User: Fold this.
Amino acid sequence: MNDVTQFTRADWQARAAALRFRNQIWIDGRAVPAASGARFESVNPATGAVLTDVARGGAEDIDRAVASARRAFEDGRWSRKTPAERKEVLLRLAALIRENVPELALLDSLDMGKLVKDASTIDAPGSAHFFQWHAEAIDKIYDEIAPTGGRDLAMVRRVPLGVVGAVVPWNFPLDMATWKLAPALATGNSVVLKPAEQSPLSALRLAELAAEAGLPDGVLNVVPGFGEDAGQALGRHADVDCLVFTGSTAVGKMFQRYAGESNMKQVWLETGGKSPNLIFPDADLDAAADMAAFGIFFNQGEVCSANSRMLVHASIAEEMIERMAARAAQAQPGDPLDPASAMGPLVDRKHADTVMGFIASGKQAGRLVCGGERIARDASDAYVQPTIFTDLRPDARVVREEIFGPVLTIQTFKTEDEALAMANDSPYALAASVWTRDLGRALSVSDRLNAGTVSVNTVDALSAMTPFGGMKQSGFGRDLSIHSFDKYSALKTTWIKY
Ligand code: NAD
Assistant:
């Protein structure tokens, strides 16, 4: 039986017990230990138990991985395949991901605490879909002939860049890796991927599946390790042509510095967010509350585009606060392997400490509507209640800073202009939502909201067909959609006189 929606907690537990973890570095199509021999523990935040110990890649391993990627790129084993040939391999990879959804979903769930029911119906099938989408797109993009006229033929072609370094976070380990790998590989580049130290396991399994699909050795290398050593070494490497990053704004800025201080590699950043959700009085308030709860409690609120700031018209504020408190009561955390759980633990104790620090500051700066406590389960104390604050000072930390946990702030406004001023008053500009039945208002507010994606009467609208990314300190460059290929290719002109 492979219908994951029918799996019980016992089914998932049995599969978890039978898992074999890939825990070496993947270079040149082989699993190898770290040059230093160092290893680090991968801990299940739901229980505090050690899952396995993983090779801890450092600068020497990054060097080996980049050298392997460079050899593969230069000899053309992948870079000079036709787009249709690359498509076939990536479609096989998508099919293999689909065959292995339960395993890939479990790896992410055990590694970082997300609900396995979400990982198996959203993350892992999503990864297959994103590989498939980019694979299918790549042999449908035409190059250009410039309109020079005369006896000149100026061809403008897209060419792969060479070696791409990809550094990704832990909140959607498989999908964040896929969002980089699918377009990077489809365009013919070689890649060195560094997954987050909290969640390296699905990326290592993905590398194996890519090899099984026929991706030539060296085209995809995966180096698990810590940010300050493996991540920094990749960011500073002189033979990496392009570095794509998803993670925090603070670390994103480091990658710009690394590039400036090394070989001026291209750097593309998808970073933090503090996304506003504007609720006008004419909205469908039940639908708005349902989706707002999804927007902040899905994946424990560990979502870059989480709708963490609700801005609600003063005339409906009390009704919305009541609705949100009722939704929060339904979103209590539990065992991520239990299909009945509404949230899992946060990624680790350290992050739970950070989120609890924000909650403590919120208690000083406003009124706690619900939640606000940490919950101990099994041997883990990484579970945090869904939490809502209101009556906050506008300069409160919980209003201004990205918390990356299940914490919602609710503020009120009286006019559209005031709502927009509050919404745009942030260093971030990743996503925003607007709830209203008035089409004119929906469009004019959307026009004035500073965000990469504005969702109207929904939250977090996203698909392989639409670009995803931010403005201001949420980053630049776009993942997904046909535009994602821009980051992984250069325009090259060949001019022929005849
Ligand atoms: P993080 O910035 O701490 O880590 C992300 C990656 O960078 C990890 O692989 C980590 O090892 C590496 N890293 C950390 N320090 C480094 C250093 N000094 N040098 C080089 N590499 C380093 O972020 P996180 O805690 O893993 O993820 C949460 C953040 O990611 C949030 O800010 C969230 O908003 C952001 N995020 C953004 C998007 C988006 O698309 N905009 C998507 C998901 C997550």
About this structure: The chain has a mean pLDDT of 98. The CA atoms of residues 76 and 461 lie 38 Å apart.
